[in-house]
Design goal:
Layout (H helix, E strand, L loop, with lengths): L4 E3 L6 E3 L1 E12 L4 E11 L4 E12 L7 E12 L2 E2 L1 E3 L2 E3 L10 E2 L9 E2 L5 E2 L4 E12 L8 E11 L3
Length: 160
């Protein structure tokens, strides 16, 4: 599938016609046990292309506490209703308050996304959405809640 390219005025050569779609949610928290999941439409494609990447970031991950086994934030990408990623990007809880610092999967702070090339193509009018999850496991709440979530989806458009 060809991608739209542009000539450059510098030595870099060509660049792709790409767009990063961002979904940010400042108040999400993984303080309670259970799961908070939602599918959120983020883009209606104006022409054909494919998803080529996805990343997530958190302002602060959840921190460990007695009885709180794990707190994970992850996200997936869907074209209409079909999943695009073979591996969803994810960030796990911090072991202590000192380790609860801003993290993102595009900067080595978690598990990176793997795009399934067989399901990454979309047509004009397709709905691109993200599914985000803040999961907690165990019998107690986190020592400190994780907060702030950002999901970025990289779209590369076909040549016209």
């Amino acid at each position: 599938m060809p991608s739209n390219t542009f000539l450059s005025q510098d030595a870099a050569g060509v660049t792709y016609d790409e767009e990063v779609v961002i979904f940010a949610f400042a108040q999400e928290s993984s303080a309670l046990t259970g799961s908070a999941a939602a599918s959120v439409p983020v883009k209606i494609a104006h022409r054909a292309g494919r998803v080529v990447g996805c990343f997530i970031g958190v302002a602060t991950p959840a921190t460990s506490a007695s009885g709180f086994v794990s707190g994970t934030v992850d996200a997936g990408v869907r074209i209409n209703s079909a999943a695009v990623l073979s591996t969803n990007p994810s960030i796990v809880m911090a072991g202590s308050a000192a380790q609860a610092i801003r993290k993102s999967t595009n900067a080595g702070g978690g598990v990176s996304a793997v795009v399934n090339a067989g399901s990454a193509a979309f047509v004009a009018g397709a709905q691109i959405s993200v599914d985000w999850n803040a999961r907690s496991v165990g019998s107690a709440a986190a020592g400190a809640a994780g907060s702030g979530l950002i999901v970025g989806v990289l779209l590369r458009y076909d040549s016209v």
